[in-house]
Amino acid sequence: MRKRIFAAVLAAVVLLSVAATPVAAAELSIDEVSLPSSVTQGDEFDLEVGISGSDVENVEATLSLPDGLSCTPTGTQDVTLTNGDGTATFSCTADAPGEYDSDISVTVTADRTSDGQTLDDQTQSGIDVLSPASLTLSTSVDQNSVEEDSSSGLTVVVHNTGDVSADYDVSVSPGGGLSVDTSSASGSVDGGSIDSTEYTLTGENSDGDQTVDITVTGDNGQTLNESETIEVTSDGGGGGSGSGSGSSGDDVSTTMPTSDRLLPADAIRNQETRDLVDADPDRAGVQVQFEEGSVRELSFANDDVAGTGSVEVQEADTVPTDVNPPNGRVRTTVEITVPEDLRDEPATIRVSVDADEIETSPEQVVIERYDAGADTWTELETTPVETGGDVVELEAETPGFSLFAVTEADDETTATQTAAETTMTDTATSEDDTAATADSGQTSASTTETGTPGFGLGVAIVAVLGAALVAVRRK
């Protein structure tokens, strides 16, 4: 009997010991997400997810990607854990430029081995996709006609509208009647920047019009071509300055429609090109937004504008010397170039001006549009939309695109206009008072003339005759 009791107690102790022994808890976590901090549009890269876990099975990793990135395998990827660790590798492509900060969502799931309960972990990651270098070329000459042994400057401007920097080579080939101080040069231009190079062309012999060919070859695969024509004369007759059209392209040259541009290449301090793509789909129409310079946005009411090409904004500190000055003091000059079909397309322009540059008030700052045919400026109806900070933002409706100037009215002009308006108001008031007094006098005279109703000249004569008749009868 005692043996049975002892055996039962011993079995109970063993069972209690087993029950009291802790069971390792199931775990699942994302240790790290590895990918480059930035890539260029079109580049391929690997995204690796480091995973650890214990007492789990059926481990899976899933990516949620923004538009502009694509990865394979798509959907869910099975992950094998070895000694509690595993890696999920996705092969990805940067399809569109953008800042995808925290836009990549990584999720891992697994089943707990002991009871099948689902465990999961999640984290966010991101990457910057840079637009590749994209070069445009524009040129200008100081004089389009030179004498023998005299010179003209040649300016070559390379603009990189992409995010990635690019190296380039320039070659200048003058005609037989010209020579150039340097026939080739090299340069580098950062993303969103402009680089310019000056050359000197000298007339060698009077051989008429000479064509100067300029070629820019970028390390991004682009080859850009431009040309200038200079007349070489024997006895003078020099002409004015000229400017060549810009060009952009890949393996072949593509000429941009810049023959009507007014800003000389060497005066441009900022240049930005944007595709005609709606940057704010929540608003009506098409909004093209800019990141640099004074122009912040162009807003088109016509939805058909989208996808028709690109818009280029060039800025300078002053208007060209061969253009009549605008009405106010120039704060900045902007030339907006759009496809030919959109030159007369109405739009709303939004520009920003540093608040410390305004000497009067934001209400005195306007946008003026230049009419090249009439050589005149027209003030657009301009409204301040943001004031009180470091910058003032203004909006104006324009009937089309050309050269624009942001100007500010002079204090003296404003004071003179105010004084003139006050004088006109006082004069008008004085004239109104005089007229009122005159009217009052006329009314008084009229009342005096008709103060005795029916008493006219005939009645007075009858009264006199009646009085005389009474006097005769008394006698």
Can you describe what's shown?
The protein has 475 residues and is an alpha+beta fold. The chain contains three helices and 32 strands. The chain has helices spanning 2-20, 411-449, 457-474, and strands spanning 27-34, 38-40, 44-54, 56-64, 69-72, 76-78, 85-94, 98-112, 118-130, 135-141, 145-147, 151-160, 166-173, 178-180, 184-189, 194-203, 208-218, 223-233, 242-243, 247-249, 253-255, 270-275, 286-289, 295-300, 310-316, 329-337, 347-354, 365-371, 376-379, 382-386, 391-398, 403-408. The strands form six sheets. Strands 10, 12, 14, 16, 19, 20 and 21 form a seven-stranded antiparallel sheet that branches. A six-stranded antiparallel sheet has the order 22-25-26-32-28-29, with no helix packed on it. A five-stranded mixed sheet has the order 2-9-8-4-6, with no helix packed on it. Strand 30 and strand 31 form a beta hairpin. The chain is elongated and about 135 Å long. The termini are far apart. Residues 236-259, 412-432, 434-465 and 467-475 have low confidence and may be disordered.
Topology summary:
Elements: H1 2-20, E1 27-34, E2 38-40, E3 44-54, E4 56-64, E5 69-72, E6 76-78, E7 85-94, E8 98-112, E9 118-130, E10 135-141, E11 145-147, E12 151-160, E13 166-173, E14 178-180, E15 184-189, E16 194-203, E17 208-218, E18 223-233, E19 242-243, E20 247-249, E21 253-255, E22 270-275, E23 286-289, E24 295-300, E25 310-316, E26 329-337, E27 347-354, E28 365-371, E29 376-379, E30 382-386, E31 391-398, E32 403-408, H2 411-449, H3 457-474
Parallel strand pairs: 2-9, 11-18
Antiparallel strand pairs: 1-3, 3-7, 4-6, 4-8, 5-7, 8-9, 10-12, 10-19, 10-20, 12-16, 13-15, 13-17, 14-16, 17-18, 20-21, 22-25, 23-24, 24-27, 25-26, 26-32, 27-31, 28-29, 28-32, 30-31
